[in-house]
């Protein structure tokens, strides 16, 4: 799994880490010009203003007991560690554990749902899917196809049906069948579409009629290739619905995966999963230490951190 993670973020490693190595490898103490170059590199890698400022300040204020490389590694880990909160699927007496999946079009919601469902199956849990993305007939068919492949029941209606109605029916069906986890898809929407964002509130209220505690997880799927725009999306979704966790997809497709640090520093949301490839196993539970090690393993950041 670690090798998959390391391979998956190879583009980010090649861009961000090689640039950092070039800058901080010059000396154990960085002058003002080099610190400015480091700041520019981090910003261009979509690390974000807040996280960049924190990393640069950490390097600026180090003492003789630690090198710049070790300082960067340590600070990256401190930024990400609070966001390491794996999703726990606790049994519910009032019905299934309900995951509501939200995000804009094209971020990989449906594929992410399928990968989570497959992992749950492998761990012995029963799963049901709700095809709540009724704005696109193709989305309903795609989820049905995944359901057939995985032998997982899918509750769906025709294209154009009311999304809340579909998910309401799915909650009832999952409860009646004793399903452990219900994963509900929703229509991809731009964070600027107020009417569609408001619909998410309706969906949440409908789910709550079956179980006041549900949805137990509102999972926001973000496309890592969108960099800072993904963070802007996250801010808008958080304002509209009670986002409780994030899945970052397509980290294997970007050289600017530094956005994970900006996301962690600004929003501090739990990062449940990171997607580093197309295979089911490439959606991994987020572990901060594994991520930083995979990113910086050849960088040498922590090897002399205690020297």
CATH T-level topology of the largest domain: Rossmann fold
User: Roughly what is the average pLDDT, rounded to an integer?
Assistant: 88
How many domains, as an integer? 2
The span between the termini is 30 Å
Strand order within the widest beta sheet: 3-2-4-1-5-6-7-8
Whole-angstrom Rg: 21 Å
- Secondary structure class reads alpha/beta
Indicate the percent of residues in helices.
40-55%
Alpha plus pi helix count: 12
Q: Give the tally of β-strands.
A: 8
User: How would you sum up the global shape?
Assistant: elongated
SS strand fraction: 5-15%
Secondary-structure element string: HHHHHEHEHEHEHEHEHEEH
Poorly predicted tracts of residues: 301-307
CATH architecture label of the largest domain: 3-Layer(aba) Sandwich
Structure write-up:
The protein is of the alpha/beta class. It folds into two domains: 2-84, Up-down Bundle (Four Helix Bundle (Hemerythrin (Met), subunit A)); 97-286, Rossmann fold (3-Layer(aba) Sandwich), CATH 3.40.50.300. It is built from twelve helices and eight strands. It has an eight-stranded mixed β-sheet with strand order 3-2-4-1-5-6-7-8, sandwiched between helices. Helix 7 links the parallel strand 2 (127-130) and strand 3. The chain is elongated and about 65 Å long. The model is unreliable at 301-307 (pLDDT under 50).
